[in-house]
TrEMBL record:
Pfam families with a match to the protein in the record: Pro_isomerase
Name of the molecule in the record: Peptidyl-prolyl cis-trans isomerase
TM regions (residue ranges): none
Protein role: PPIases accelerate the folding of proteins. It catalyzes the cis-trans isomerization of proline imidic peptide bonds in oligopeptides.
Domain PPIase cyclophilin-type: 1-104
One GO cellular component term: mitochondrion
GO biological process: protein folding
GO MF annotation terms: cyclosporin A binding; peptidyl-prolyl cis-trans isomerase activity
Keywords assigned by UniProt, alphabetized: Isomerase, Rotamase
Length: 159
């Protein structure tokens, strides 16, 4: 699991809500049955504020205690990478992690999660984030594999 949203201290000890210091719990039938569930972190009943978490495994111990507000549908591998960063004795990552340039997608708007590092590799970092049906588009997948191989070969030749 990863947790963030302490916009006051950046230590996981505080937060803020547009409704005041806290806002009340709201429960629904959604359970923490899979990875990628986004929920509100809290310090007990009715103590929700800006802190949130994203699960990387099922977390039934959070059911009926924490509000689920969404689910990661693309880029879950990035969340898993964040969870794998080495932490100190207080469970804080030793490397800085920040969410930047975030916003809201409109229905039908492209996700644009392809690599944009100026190289010829323009495919998403993780195959499961590529919006392509592997059965119906086998040719596109083979083309992508060949393009990545060609790009890798050109990098090795430059060394």
């Amino acid at each position: 699991m990863v947790q963030g949203g302490d916009i006051i201290n950046g230590t996981g000890t505080s937060g803020e809500s547009i409704f005041g210091e806290y806002f009340e719990d709201e429960y629904c039938d959604i359970k923490h049955t899979e990875e990628g569930m986004v929920g509100m972190a809290n310090n007990g009943p009715n103590t929700n504020h800006s802190q949130f978490y994203i699960t990387t495994v099922p977390c039934s111990h959070l059911d009926d205690r924490n509000i689920i507000v969404g689910q990661v549908v693309k880029g879950l591998n990035i969340v898993v990478e964040m969870a794998d960063i080495i932490r100190d004795e207080n469970d804080r990552p030793l490397e800085a992690i920040s969410i930047e340039d975030c916003g809201e997608f409109e229905t039908g708007e492209p996700w644009n999660i392809e690599e944009r590092d100026g190289t010829e590799d323009v495919y998403p970092p993780w195959p499961n984030d590529w919006d392509i049906d592997s059965v119906e588009n086998l040719g596109a997948i083979i083309n992508a594999i060949n393009a990545i191989k060609k790009f890798r070969k050109s990098l090795l030749q430059k060394k």
